[in-house]
Amino acid sequence: MVVGVWSDDKNAQLEATTQFRKLLSIERSPPINEVVQAGVVPRFVEFLNRDDFPQLQFEAAWALTNIASGTSDNTRVVIDHGAVPIFVKLLGSPTDDVREQTKPALPALERLINSNDEEVLTDACWALSYLSDGTNDKIQAVIEAGVCPRLIELLL
């Protein structure tokens, strides 16, 4: 699967990314750490930018949101590879499936703004700032993620 993700063949990329997404979608103990250790997260983030291939964007977004839903370290890996600004952009995607699949990334930010780690907290707040500086749909997504009470607490 790793070879497929790093392939130049877009069909191999899609097939491998879909397989990873299915693996990460199992209910009991998905192998999130193993997938992270396989080194595919940066490639999934690259795939988020493939506006010419919405199906690959969708599968990559789903895989990344599953990774981000793991531990705070898993979420951090997704953030550190630059996924958040791209997720923000994809909230405005013309493709319904892509747009809907990026919304689950927001609860990961909600978890992160409750972190005691100042660097994590700073990154999460900046990401939310970028989101709330967008369209009404993006602002609504931030509100629905339930982050406002914590943001207010941080401002006080």
TrEMBL record:
Residues passing through the membrane, by range: none
InterPro entries, sorted: ARM-like, ARM-type_fold, Armadillo
UniProtKB keywords: Protein transport, Repeat, Transport
Gene Ontology biological-process annotations: protein transport
ARM repeat feature ranges: 39-82, 104-146
Domain of life: Eukaryota
Family stated for the protein in its record: Belongs to the importin alpha family.
PANTHER family in the cross-refs: IMPORTIN ALPHA
Protein's UniProt name: IBB domain-containing protein
Organism expressing this protein natively: Gossypium lobatum
